[in-house]
Amino acid sequence: xxxxxxxxxxxxxxxxxxxxxxxxxxxxxxxxxxxxxxxxxxxxxxxxxxxxxxxxxxxxxxxxxxxxxxxxxxxxxxxxxxxxxxxxxxxxxxxxxxxxxxxxxxxxxxxxxxxxxxxxxxxxxxxxxxxxxxxxxxxxxxxxxxxxxxxxxxxxxxxxxxxxxxxxxxxxxxxxxxxxxxxxxxxxxxx
Length: 191
Known about the structure:
Layout: H1 2-16, E1 40-42, E2 55-57, E3 65-67, E4 75-81, H2 86-102, E5 107-114, H3 120-129, E6 135-138, E7 157-161, E8 167-171, H4 177-189
Parallel strand pairs: 4-5, 5-6
Antiparallel strand pairs: 1-8, 2-3, 4-7, 7-8
Helix pairs in contact: 2-4
């Protein structure tokens, strides 16, 4: 009987900590899951979860940090790429087109360069293609930890964030501008 009373008291303490205005909201941050192995995933309404902590060293500007917070209130198209990735060579100019066409609407493309240990290779990649959008140099994969559960080998891939930096779409395949333009224009028009 005494054991049952102690268990009930412990349970009361645990449940008492999980309610109230200061309770931790679970499930509010993005954690990646590919339902049914889908390669193109859309999130609507409450299914959109916020991304926090995406930042890292600027690929092109020594000593500068690029952070998702730099783009507050903007739709952000996060492109995960590497200079060693053949599909990325085709995709990068398409993402530049998205930046050029929708930047004035409040859309920002942000690259995350992964698995490039020698910084000159991705810098040459950016210069050779005339890319103007910023990239984080993330050789060690630390910046990508902001996307909890995201597959580290999904290169190229694209994650589209709404104005509140909640994940609105994930593309685990190479994209072209026409895949993204209607989506980012709709997100930019959201209030």
